[in-house]
Amino acid sequence: MDSVANSFLIKPESVYAFTDSTVVLAWLKDDPKRWNTYGTLNSADCASRGLRPEELVNHELWWIGPEFLKNKIQDQFIFQDLPTEALRETRKNVTVLHTGIDTSLLHKFSSFTKLLRVTAYCKRFSHNTRKKAERQLTFLNSDELRNALFALVNIVQQDAFSEEIELCSKNKPVSVKSRLRSLKPFLDEIGLLRVGGRLRHAKIENGRKHPLILPNNHVFTKLIIDYEHLNNLHGGCQNVLASIHRRFWILNSRDAVSRKIRKCVRCCRVRAETATQMMGDLSSIRVIPQRPFMKVGVDYAGPIMLRRGKGNAQQKGYITIFICMVTRAMHLEVVTSITSEAFMAVLKRFISRRGLPSDIYSDCGKTFVGSNKELQKYWKVQALQHAVGLFLAEKQIRWHFNPPASPHFGGLWEAGIRSVKFHLRRTVGTMICTYEDMCTMTSQIEACLNSRPITPMSCDPNDLEALTPGHFLIGDALTSIPEPSLQEEPESHLTKWKKLQKTVQQFWKRWSREYLSRLQQRPKWLNLKPSLKIGDLVLLKDERLPTLKWTLARIVEAHTGLDGVTRVFTVKTANGLLKRPLVKLSPLPIEPTED
Fold first, then answer.
1. What is the pLDDT of residues 340-368, one digit of tens each?
2. CA 276, CA 532: separation in Å to the nearest integer?
3. Residue 458 above 90 pLDDT?
4. Distance set, CA 55 to CA 49, 64, 73, 195, 334 (Å)
5. Structure confidence at residue 589 as a pLDDT band (50, 70, 90)
6. What's this model's pTM, rounded to 2 decimal places?
7. 251 Cβ neighbours under 8 A, 6+ residues apart
8. Chain-centre distance for alpha carbon 562
9. 137: helix, coil or strand?
10. What's the rounded Cα separation, in Å, for the pair 206 and 130?
11. Nearest to 450, CA basis, from 347, 328, 287
């Protein structure tokens, strides 16, 4: 108000201040921090706070202004006492928060060398201020660094072993419950706690004979372990322990050193151990009985060399493997290319022989991804051109892709590829076959694989024949000896049909009793482990590169499975986002940062 009054040429005799807020009036009488300003008598607020034009027509505050402007100034009570109801709302709820921040010198540095030098400079500053005639201005010498080390050790020991130090200062033995009882500690000439031990008469330096005692979980101890680990060029536990024991004796030193080495980022990048998780439950497509090849997995094996024509010209070939997810029956096709068009032709041949599948499972190969798009176009065109297209549209094939770079998600067809290669190496070897010969060979391998038992064989001659995928295809193993004709039997056709149906049902009953029980146990990945979290820093495993060149990434999204366990993650690299399984990620011992 003084600055406004001084700006006028004529000095005002009296000054009256108007306000639209009673809170301001109370403000002038009390601490301003107690009140929040909010006025309801400001006529400018009618337009700025969004009144409609029809509301402004008869709005008195907009056209006339506040009521107190029409009254005499002398009649107004500028300072009014607050009513009792208002005073009840003036109470405050005060919450006192205490932030536990350790401001000691030991927690300010992540390097033992830097901590030691800063401590030495602090002691030098104290010395120079007390003894100006003996000021030291040159670089730090060994005595100053040694005295700084002793000062830090003294702080740590006073914090961790105060009771033991008090007893030793009185020449009393430590308590029977003390962690230092087996070390027979004593105080040296400068008051530091050292190991008494049994090496008093050994011809070794005093630091190794009576090392300084340190706790295993103190921040100063961790700095010493990091220093010795780096000083020994990321040496192992034994190497680091040998260096530490020249001056210090850390309680439970092996565990402390091993724990710190496991958290060394450089060592973790060299070891690069990928994460694992408990094996998931079997999907419903594996344990619910359905007709063979209703739900199939598909993959390629190869390449194999094929002879083209009568000359020596050669071309690459591949084996397409279809495997039933329920019965493990296999269907093999030889192709000369892995394009989407070639796979569409293979799929048509498969459907013509084995029936229309409802679901196809594969990895994220470019061939299958392209075929999925072509397949969708194919079904749409057929639905428009043919009468059967409506049925195909209702029963169209659903394509399911596994996460990228995760072959273990398709372990069923990967095992089938291994079985095909097993027979192919032993029959064909290095021989180069023609396309026709290879088709014949793969058909024979298919018959062998569909005749292999899917349940354990029994040595009892009275037991039934082992259950094979062929039993679900033709009622018997594909390589079994044909049985004699039953056309001359006097049974009716209906009786034969019932017997056949009973046989098929018996196969499924054995499948449920013998085969499913074998799938109950987990062969590996038995324990549930802590999952990675969003924000964790990981390495992307690449078998083609050494571990130090694996790509660095950060987890940005987790894809949880049906059992509530996360085995697939989306990670962010310098080149973009990637979707990878857990077994392709190697976590680094770095805490995630909060944005």
1. 778 788 888 888 888 888 888 887 765 55
2. 10
3. no
4. 12, 15, 30, 89, 83
5. confident
6. 0.57
7. 179, 180, 213, 214, 215, 216
8. 17
9. coil
10. 32
11. 328
